[in-house]
Every structure is written in C-alpha cells, then in structure tokens.
Specification:
Distance between the termini: 35 Å
Function: Leucine-rich repeat protein that likely mediates protein interactions, possibly in the context of signal transduction.
Number of helices: 0
CATH architecture: Alpha-Beta Horseshoe
Helix content: under 10%
CATH topology: Leucine-rich repeat, LRR (right-handed beta-alpha superhelix)
CATH class: Alpha Beta
Organism: Aegilops tauschii subsp. strangulata (Goatgrass)
Protein name: Disease resistance R13L4/SHOC-2-like LRR domain-containing protein
Mean pLDDT: 98
Radius of gyration: 13 Å
GO cellular component, one term: cytoplasm
Order of helices and strands: EEEEEE
Domain Disease resistance R13L4/SHOC-2-like LRR: 16-97
Shape: globular
Number of strands: 6
C-alpha cells in the first residue's frame, strides 16, 4: 500500500504496527481525535506526505526526524506546544505547516532543512 487516507473519522489512536507499512508514501489522518502518534511512525522510510491537521496532537514523536524522504508535513490545528529537535533530520522536507497550535519556540534544527521552501506557523 502506498496511500492511506483515514480523514474525518473518530480515530483516537494509531496502532504501533503502522510501522510495518514500509511502502507507504502518503498518510492522511486529518480531522480525527488523535492525541499521540506512535514512535513506529519513524519506520515509514518511504513516507513523502504526512498530514495530521485538525486533531488533538500534544506532541510529535522524536522518530519523525527519521522520515528522511518526507516532502510535506502538515500538523496544523492541533495542541502542539513545540516541534521536536529531531525534525531537522527530515532532510527532504519542502513544506512544513504547523498553523493554529501553541508553539512557543522553533527548534534550531529547522536550519538543517536545506530543501524547505515553505514554513507556516500562523496562529501560534
């Protein structure tokens, strides 16, 4: 499977075995009730797009930095108060959207994202 869309449901938890979907390129989890993403998410080495907007995420797993092929990360409209320092490991990241959270500080590792074209942090 290369694309998994679970948007607009009442999902609260993503199982750890999501890490077994090694061929996954697009994961869409918008408009659910997710508060935590499993560390196993970092095993999705082919993931290019991760959208988890309009949930109740409190934090991102440190393993998000292992997603070296990710081009788009959208975590807008959650309850994040920070982005993990490990995000600097997302070497291919071109677009990061984290609008509508409670982010107070941007990690210095953002400067490592040489491919980043768009950073949106409105409404934090």
């Amino acid at each position: 499977m290369q694309r998994l869309v679970l948007a607009g449901n009442l999902i609260e938890n993503i199982p750890a075995n999501i890490g077994y979907l090694r061929n996954l390129k697009i994961l869409t989890l918008d408009r659910n009730r997710i508060t935590v993403l499993p560390e196993e998410l970092g095993s999705l080495s082919n993931l290019q797009q991760l959208t988890v907007s309009q949930n109740s995420l409190l934090c991102l797993p440190k393993s998000v930095g292992d997603l070296c092929n990710m081009l788009l990360l959208n975590v807008s409209d959650n309850k994040l108060n920070a982005l993990p320092e490990s995000i600097g490991g997302c070497k291919s990241l071109e677009e990061l959207q984290a609008n509508g959270n409670a982010i107070e500080d941007v990690p210095s590792s953002i400067c490592n994202l040489a491919c980043l074209k768009s950073l949106s942090l409105n409404g934090n």
